[in-house]
C-alpha cells in the first residue's frame, strides 16, 4: 500500500469569450502560472447560448493549477481588470497534487 505525499493547491477555472484568450493568458503569465489547459466550450447562461463552433460567439475554458496565494491574486486581477470588458466567469476549487514544483 503506497502512501502518496499530496500537496494542497487550487484549480482556477475561467470560462470566457474566445476574444479574451490573449488578455487572460497574459495575466496568467504575470501572476506566475507555469502552464494551463485551454479548450473550446459551449453552454447557456444568463446571457443566452454560446456555441463553440462560431468564432464570433465562441467560449473557451482555461484551467490552471496554482498555489493558494496565486489563485487569490489571479481572481482579484480577473475581477478588477477583465470582467468588465469581457463575458467571463471564474471560480476556484481545492485540489491536491503530486509534484507541486510543476505548478
- Report Rg: 15 Å
**Uncertain residue segments:** none
Tell me the number of strands: 6
How would you sum up the major sheet?
A: 4 strands, antiparallel
Number of helices: 2
* Main structural class: alpha+beta
- Given the C-alpha coordinates, what overall shape results? globular
Helix content: 25-40%
- The fraction of residues assigned to DSSP E strands is 35-45%
Order of helices and strands: EHEEEEHE
Distance between the termini: 27 Å
Q: Residue-averaged pLDDT, rounded?
A: 90
Strand arrangement in the largest pleated sheet: 2-5-1-6
Write up what this structure looks like:
- This protein has 103 residues and is of the alpha+beta class.
- The chain is 25% helix and 39% strand.
- It is built from two helices and six strands.
- The strands form two sheets. Strands 2-5-1-6 form a four-stranded antiparallel beta sheet, covered by helices on one side. Strands 3-4 form a two-stranded antiparallel ribbon.
- The longest helix has 15 residues.
- The model has no long low-confidence stretch (mean pLDDT 90).
Question: Top keywords for this entry?
Answer:
four-stranded antiparallel β-sheet; alpha+beta; two-stranded antiparallel sheet; 39% strand; 6 strands; 103 residues
Secondary-structure topology with pairs:
Layout: E1 7-17, H1 21-31, E2 37-41, E3 43-45, E4 48-50, E5 59-66, H2 68-82, E6 88-97
Antiparallel strand pairs: 1-5, 1-6, 2-5, 3-4
Quick structural summary:
The chain contains 2 helices and 6 strands. It is of the alpha+beta class and about 100 residues long.
Amino acid at each position: 500500500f503506497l502512501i502518496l505525499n499530496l500537496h494542497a493547491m487550487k484549480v482556477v477555472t475561467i470560462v470566457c469569450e474566445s476574444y479574451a484568450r490573449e488578455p487572460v493568458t497574459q495575466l496568467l503569465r504575470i501572476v506566475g502560472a507555469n502552464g494551463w489547459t485551454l479548450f473550446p466550450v459551449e453552454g447557456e447562461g444568463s446571457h443566452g447560448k454560446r456555441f463553440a463552433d462560431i468564432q464570433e460567439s465562441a467560449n473557451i475554458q482555461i484551467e490552471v493549477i496554482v498555489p493558494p496565494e496565486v489563485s487569490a491574486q489571479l481572481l482579484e486581477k480577473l475581477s478588477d481588470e477583465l470582467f468588465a470588458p469581457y463575458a467571463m466567469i471564474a471560480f476556484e476549487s481545492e485540489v491536491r497534487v503530486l509534484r507541486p514544483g510543476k505548478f
